[in-house]
Structure formats: C-alpha cells, structure tokens
Amino acid sequence: MSDVTARVADATGNWVDTHAPAWSRPYLRLSRFDRPIGSWLLLMPCWWSAALAAGIARDVSSLPLVIVLFFIGAFVMRGAGCTWNDITDRDLDAKVERTRSRPLPAGQVSVAQAFAFLVLQALIGLAVLLQFNRFAILTGIASLVIVAIYPFMKRITWWPQVVLGLAFSWGALMGFAVTLGRIDLTALVLYAGSIAWVIGYDTIYAHQDAEDDALIGVKSTARLFGERTHLALSIFYPLAVVLIGAALALGGARWPAWIGLVAFAAHLAWQIGRLDISNPALCLRLFRSNRDAGLLLFAGLLVDAVIRA
C-alpha cells in the first residue's frame, strides 16, 4: 500500500487532506467527500421534484424531512457510485494524469477494501430509502441498474453523458414517487429536462480529460463535439430550460418557480459565454457552478410550494 496521506492531483487543499484522520482519507476520496460537487448535482433534481410535487399536493408538511433525507441519500449514493466507478476504471485511471493519484490506482486501498466500502455506503443508502413508501423504494432500487452500467459506457459509446444523465437525474422521479406515490407526465418531463442539463455540464467537465481520453480510447461528448461544444451547449442547455419549464407548467407552478427558472437559464447562458474548452481550470469552475444554477431553481420551487400550500 502507498502512503494514504498522499493527495489526489485534482482535489488538493480540502478538508480531507488537512483534517480527516489519515486512515479515513482513501475512503473519503473514493466517495468524493473531498470534492462534493457531484453530490450536490445529484441532489438538485431530487430537491426540484420534491418541491414541485409538494406544490402540486399543496402540502409542505413532510417537505423538510424529505429534503434532509434526499440530502443524506444523495451524498451517500453518489459516494457509492464513485466507488463503483473507481473500481471499474482503476486501470484507465492509472493512465490519466488527473486520476492516476486516486486511491485505487495509487494503491492506497485494495479492490476488496473498496468493494467493502461500497457495500457499507449502499446499506446506508438503503436505510434512507426505507423511510419512504413502497413505490418510492422500488423506484430508487431501479436506478441501480443505470448506475451499474454507467462506468462501461465510455468504452462503447460517444454518449456516456446520456447514461450519466439518466442516473444523475433520477431524483426528478423520486420526489414525485415519495410525495405523490406516482410518476406522471410532469415528473417525466422534469426528468428529461434534467438529463439535458447533465449532458451539458458533464460535457464541460469532460473537456478536462479530452486529450488523455483520446490517447487511451475513452469516448465522451467532449471529444465528439470538440470545437462545436459551444453549439452543442446552445442546444442542450436551452432544451433543459424548455423541458423544465414545461414541467412547471404541467405542475401548475406559480411566479416564484418561474423566477427561479429564469435565474437558472441566465446562469446556463453565462456558462456558455464564459466557456473556453482549452482551459481545464475554467472548465472545472464552470462545471462546479452548476450547483448554484440548480439552487436558484430550487429556491424558486421551494417558495412556490410554500405559497401554494
């Protein structure tokens, strides 16, 4: 085993490096607690759908608890997904400059240890899921199929971001399943809008590794779009806004939700204007900024739910 205190190249200066016990650092890095942006992005569709569904139900009494449970579930299950991804990608990660210092390719943990940690995280996620109704439990379990196949998609398709979108947008269905006990057209349209959003922001993220990915044969929309990335984002980001707007209309949303959507749209437009695909540091900053975009929309939906209750 290598030094467990050695830092990951693309996640330095965080609380895991400076404050976490040395023995825990490889596991916290496996679950990406040193860079929680992915957990926030997984959480956003959960919170959107929970707020929109509460507004439709005109009942916010259970919304605070649902928000908290979704928060815990998103962070734990994103960690489990990243651990699974690192297990399956350990050989590829060893060939990429940005990822070769991750715990598995760096030898900080064994595959068996990583798998045991994966099981632990999954059990915590299951404990959260069991707090919901039967339909929501089954809906949550169904997402595991997509999570399981995602790491292999970059090997066989230029569109792995679509599969990531299917996984990371699942929360758009969960809020309706938890609050209303159903998945209706409104939920499905919100889900589709979130998928378009994920394709956009993960294309930006993937530009960090485009050169290494080309060398080792890993596919992505970043490589597929290349210099046409601005054009692609000008399709996927507006599509996300239109579809989410359609979901708001179907759900009878009022003015606060629409203000949130306008702020969300403005943020996405700002990202397109700022993007320089040849600047990896900027790509990472713009990718991370999508948490703020998602929170703007959630704030509008939350206010809408409260005034409709």
Structure keywords:
73% helix; single chain; 309 residues; mainly alpha; globular
Approximate shape: globular
| Low-pLDDT windows of residues | none
Provide the helix percentage. Answer: over 70%
Q: Distance between the terminal alpha carbons, to the nearest Å?
A: 56 Å
Task: Characterize the largest beta sheet: strand count, sense, and whether it forms a barrel.
Answer: none
Number of strands: 0
- Average pLDDT number: 93
Share of residues in strands: under 5%
By secondary-structure content and strand pairing, the structural class works out as mainly alpha
Q: Cα-atom Rg, whole angstroms?
A: 19 Å
Q: SSE string, helix = H, strand = E? A: HHHHHHHHHHHHHHHH
What's the total helix number? 16
Could you give a short description of this structure?
The protein has 309 residues and is mainly α.
In words, what does this structure look like?
By secondary structure, this protein is an all-alpha fold. It is 73% helix and 0% strand. It contains 16 helices and no strands. It has helices spanning 15-18, 25-30, 37-57, 63-88, 90-93, 111-129, 134-156, 160-168, 171-179, 185-206, 210-216, 221-225, 229-250, 255-274, 280-288, 290-308. Helix 7 (134-156) runs antiparallel to helix 8 (160-168). The longest helix is centred in the first third of the chain and has 26 residues, at 63-88. It is globular and about 55 Å long.
